[in-house]
Amino acid sequence: MGQILRRIERLGFRIEQMQMIRPSRELLDSHYQHLRGKAFYPSLLDYMMSGPLLIGILSGSDVIASWLTMMGETNPKDALPGTIRGDFAQAPEANAPMMNCVHGSDSPDSAQLEIALWFGGSTEDSN
After folding, report:
1. Integer CA distances (angstroms), 25 to 3, 15, 41, 72, in order
2. Which of 56, 103, 113, 119 is an active site residue?
3. Which residues have CB under 8 Å from 124's CB, separation 6+?
4. If you average pLDDT over every residue of the chain, what do you get?
5. What is the pLDDT of residue 90?
6. 95: left (phi over 0), alpha (psi -120 to 50) or beta
7. Domain layout of the chain by residue ranges
8. CB crowding 100-126: b at 16 or more within 10 Å, else e
9. Angle at CA 125, nearest 5°, toward 27 and 52?
10. Share of the chain above pLDDT 90, in %
């Protein structure tokens, strides 16, 4: 966790909010509703509920595009060394969830929806 936070600092991002939570199945089901019906879906929810999550809201210049680049490809097998997923995530086995250690919104609109879902509000400077 500390190495990821150091990378956030090096990118010059500001952490607007951060908290450690244990998400409910309902919260995760809302976040991952687009994946319902996939073979790995039940194990994804189990993985995400297996321990606490550190969630945060980042802000800064071009934060969404820069963070997506720093995270690397979703599948750790495709993520380049030097990206967070390339360095820390575990590649999935058949029908298993990807054991990614980070998430990032892919647009300002999805950021606002995810902030509302996870934090119950919004921040104006999240994109």
Report:
1. 28, 26, 12, 26
2. 103
3. none
4. 89
5. 81
6. left
7. 2-119
8. bbbebbeeeeebbebbeebbeeeeeeb
9. 30
10. 74
Burial class (CB within 10 angstroms; exposed 0-12, middle 13-18, buried 19+) of 51: exposed
User: Can you give the pLDDT at residue 1?
Assistant: 86
What's the topology of domain 2-119? Alpha-Beta Plaits (3.30.70)
103 counts as catalytic: yes
**How high is the pLDDT of residue 36?**
95
Report the length, in residues, of the chain. Answer: 127
Q: What is the largest CA-CA distance in the chain?
A: 40
pTM of the model: 0.83
Are 2 and 10 in contact by the 8 Å Cβ rule? The answer is no
Torsion angle of the four alpha carbons 93, 98, 70, 109, in this order, in degrees rounded to the nearest 10: 150
Place of tokens 């321990």: 51
